[in-house]
Amino acid sequence: MSFGMSAPRSASADRQDGTTVMTQIQTGWGAGPSARYEDLAERFRPVFREIRAGAPARDHERRLPHAELAALKEASFTTLRLPPGEGGHGASLPELFGLLIELSVGDPNVTNALRAHFGFTEDVLNSPHPDWRSQWLPRIAARQTVGSGVSETGAAKVGSFDTVLKRRGDGYILDGTKFYTTGSLFADWIHLAAVDEAGQPIGAAVPRLATGVEVLDDWDGFGQALTASGTAKFTGVAVEAAWVNPDPGRFRYAVAFYQLVHLATLAGIGRAAAGDVARLVAERTRVYSHGNAARTADDPQVLQVVGRVRGAAYAAGAIVLKAAEALQRVWEADRAGDGEEAAVAATVADVEVNQAVTVVTGLVLDATTQLFDALGASSTRRGLALDRHWRNARTIATHNPRIYRDRTVGDFAVNGTAPPRQYRVGQA
């Protein structure tokens, strides 16, 4: 696909090499979230295509996407949200999520590996501390990336951590172990949550290659297997005082943001599944004696399956972009200095994302199962890796379980109860 400048084009576009490509609108996925989206996306589409071309083999061989993430950094994808004057593209939140959907078509492992980086970027952009912003904006502009070091397993209670950051002279010493350290193996920095000597929450970012930091690729989930979402160990790590965030809280719309990255990833998985099943049906030469046509591509029942998968992917993407508008309203209210309006908008954003979780998850899980109904037994060959779509979707859907989302939305609708501001896991 190709994208144009200014307003979305309704006709095909010509590449410099003379070939003609269809725009996103003509291929039926709809217009982007802004008039300039097509031009912004065109910067990254060649990288997305390369990432998608190698995704089945990477999944089959369990080959981590180091090169793919490096290509995105080189293309400055990781600076999307920074203002142009700060070395970025000034992408709005809907534009960011539109691009995350497209990246996820290529490989949802790569999207998930960048989830913590984009979340940390929002923390920096929203920080009320000028020194913190002035320290991190140039690093992000220089295409340094940040991985996750927040979640833990073990005996820590809900809302607390066993990872401790203790004062030592002019700096700190860090000790602890994290799990679900998604993206950290690929990153330059690890953003972590800990407690201080008094048990109070404290946050910091440490270099991944610092002495005492060890990141292990020991994630053995059946899906999202290439995100390196395993263990990070911190043993006597020297932490400079400047690396400790003066505000241990997160940005206003953090809960909605992180969950919406998962939903954008799911939407991209659905779109990839729709593309794969359509291509394989078009290529298929064998038919069943009890089928409805001499060509599989003409069989109305098979076409119905393809259409159902594609419709699910379309709906999932539309829902994600609509919810992204709610996050943008929080951002704009904060930029305008209207804290009261921003607080209300943040609650509404949480509601909208919660409303989307069960619907988007169900659409994509169903679609990634149903696609096999349009194909023969050959579609289960490992080399095609079509099962990765369901495995990746199923794994993403286990984060912050969807079973609680409908209840949260119902409580808001009936009782006006705001959704939780944070989601934590631990011992009761």
Question: Can you characterise this structure?
Answer:
It contains 11 helices and 9 strands. By secondary structure, it is α+β, with helices and mostly antiparallel strands. The protein has 3 domains: 13-145, Butyryl-Coa Dehydrogenase, subunit A, domain 1 (Orthogonal Bundle); 147-243, Butyryl-CoA Dehydrogenase, subunit A, domain 2; 254-415, Butyryl-CoA Dehydrogenase, subunit A, domain 3 (Up-down Bundle). The strands form 3 sheets. It has a 4-stranded antiparallel sheet with strand order 4-5-9-8, with no helix packed on it. Strands 3-6-7 form a 3-stranded mixed sheet, with helices on one face. It has a two-stranded antiparallel sheet with strand order 1-2. Helix 4 (93-106) runs antiparallel to helix 8 (300-335) and helix 5 packs antiparallel against helix 7 (254-283). The protein is globular and about 80 Å long. The model is unreliable at 1-14 (pLDDT under 50). This is FMNH2-dependent monooxygenase SfnC. One of its GO terms (molecular function) is acyl-CoA dehydrogenase activity.
